[in-house]
Design brief:
By secondary structure, the protein is mostly beta strands. Helix content is about 0%, strand content about 50%. A 4-stranded antiparallel beta sheet has the order 1-2-3-8, with no helix packed on it. A 4-stranded antiparallel beta sheet has the order 4-7-6-5, with no helix packed on it. It is globular.
Amino acid sequence: MRLDYWNCFENLKGKVITCIIGAEKESKEIVFKCETGEKYKMYHHQNCCEYVTVEDIIGDIKNLIGSPILMAEEVSEVDDKARESGTWTFYKLATAKGYVTIRWYGESNGSYSERVDFVRVG
């Protein structure tokens, strides 16, 4: 098992989500509550000169509630068109009900992280 297992997005696979808080455009954090009582938070630890938020949610977020997560995948790519530095991070989730992609965008002056953090908080 990886040392960071509890803080790995793929850990949602197989879980049944009962509640999602903050999943909307321009959110700075999203909380997933699971049937087991576990809670996971997706957010960006803000420093000085960066800005990271949810840019878009593709699909119906309600499709993730009440059915086991069959896919939990994270994909990032650099935004070549950013003024200084930009990163797209896509979180792809699927259940038997449908697929959802949570698209985060981060930009900075190039000296700071644009990474989205995923941690177990309960």
